[in-house]
Amino acid sequence: MSKNRYLFTQVKSDLSEKMVFLGGPRQVGKTTLAKQFIKNSNQYLNWDKDSDKKILLKELLDPSLKLIVLDEVHKFKKWRSLVKGYYDKFYPDLNFLVTGSARLDLFRKGGDSLVGRYHYLRLHPFSLTELNKTPNPKDLEALLKFGGFPEPFTKQSETHHARWQLERVSRVITQDLRDLETVKEISLVELLAQSLGPRVGSALSIKSLQEDLQVSPNTVSHWIEILEQLYYCFRILPYGPAKIKAVKKAQKLYLWDWSDVEDIGAKFENLVASHLLKFCHFEEDTKGIKTELRYFKDVVTGKEIDFIVLQKNKPLFAVECKAGERALSKSLTTNGRRLGIHQLYQVHMGQRDYGTESTGRVLPFSTFCKELGLP
Description:
The chain has helices at about 10-15, 30-35, 50-55, 80-90, 100-110, 130, 135-145, 150-155, 160-180, 185-195, 205-215, 215-230, 265-285, 330-340, 365-370; strands at about 20-25, 45, 65-70, 95-100, 120, 235-240, 250-255, 290-295, 305-310, 315-320, 345-350, 355, 360-365. The protein is of the alpha/beta class.
């Protein structure tokens, strides 16, 4: 495993230009990464600590420190104006690395009084090639089993992993949710979160969830949006040019912690989805290239392509997932050609590697990650 996380170099480079906002799920390693850029404890201020809060509110900051890490400051209602004031007063003598999750990401998508003052980066869980530049089957097996969050993956203890999962869900639902907005039916949101694992990889049915929870469709949709903001799950949209009869609205859902999915095929598909989303976010955050993760489903035949990665609204490559070493999917090749996609991959958990990208290549997922240079 590498000593530094995959965003270390980018954070270092961006700090030479502006503030850096580092977002991502709870317990993904944001604070650990941020602390690698400081030399003493005075450079780290946590809003949850009363003494640090006093320093922040009274602007008792020492410019000689050069850099300060602001952790959990987004919990303060007026944190944007607070950070803006720090930057305008102290920069460039003193710079700031701000870490956060749901509120930080929500702020980025809304009104932005800090425009031009920061770079935004999203930290993801471990991926195969972040763990090992030349990943092997054992790396994939461990990543599937324990997920990509640093603590359970590093421990690799089934008991610790099970306890960590329960504690993480509890913290996300009971703590982070309360910080984000007021929701009275906390227990129902937790029930919704628990019901999403079996639905991974399938078209998301709001109606089915609404019937299970006995709430309105709008409520279910809102709660799923909240769980997305809390980095519990993510959805991908369908892809289909106007001339092709493809699904246009139905979304597919995946979990940030794929180890919480029981079915091995769905778990592997979720792991692949997470790796591809990490690639998309990396391209956007570090290169400024609009990159999206989509899927395709033909309305007439019902045939699908699991994933299509778009750059600047054009297909870059397509990926089909098969847990076992199966024959090349006809849906991948036929629909790939219809959509004008020139790089077609079918990834699996085995060893066989044959075919070409243009006609459809079947290959181990570890080889795919290595050759495409996924972060």
